[in-house]
Amino acid sequence: MFEVFGGAFIRMTVKLTYREPVRFMGSLNKVLYPWMNRKKPFWVTQEASPYVDEDITSENKTFLEQQRIDSLTSSTSPVITEQPAQVPWKPYVTQRCGLIAIKLGLYPLWTKTGKKIDCTIFQIPDNHAIRYTPPSEIDKYISLLHPRHYWLNNKRPPSWITQKRWGIQLVGAVSADPIEFTSEWCDLFKKAGIPPKRKISRFLVSPDAALKPG
């Protein structure tokens, strides 16, 4: 950086300091947190590698396919044997679970008076409850303790963790063949007795509205 003063050039140096954990890049000020370049947990890698050749014969391959079909159709879910009691909804207390949906698009509808209304169409695939973590054990949730969460590093946990009002309900959607995923990913669904899912999500649910696995 140069400035002209009295007909002479004066050179000025500007010292740039780099601060962790946040930096800005580009004209859009994209925020890059320090954990973005770190290795993700093992359960994030859900797809199996197509380059692994286990030298399986055609007869064994047919047998394994039949075993996968039997495991998908078996009724080992706890929901089938245990029917939960219906709990009435309480305002400002009960927090129920949500759904995982696929947005298909917009569809126009008209009222009797001729007013046009644009409606959003969603497809609800096969949603299953995987597990529920109660509020008393929410501080042991492994993904919340991971350094990828910026607010935990800054010692600023949200109120729903400190007050322990809600738990975490894990829900999965879109069933698929187990051969497409890693063994670690499939282990997430074994205890619930459901097939592996392509998409999982978490919902904040109160203890009185918790869903059993299945």
Automatic annotation (TrEMBL):
An example GO biological process term is: translation
Coiled-coil positions: none
The record lists the organism as Schistosoma curassoni
Q: Which GO terms describe its cellular component?
A: mitochondrial large ribosomal subunit
InterPro entries referenced in this protein's UniProt entry, alphabetically: Ribosomal_uL3_bac/org-type, Transl_B-barrel_sf
A GO molecular function held by the record:
structural constituent of ribosome
Transmembrane stretches, by residue range?
Answer: none
Annotated protein name in UniProt: Large ribosomal subunit protein uL3m
Q: Which domain of life is it from?
A: Eukaryota
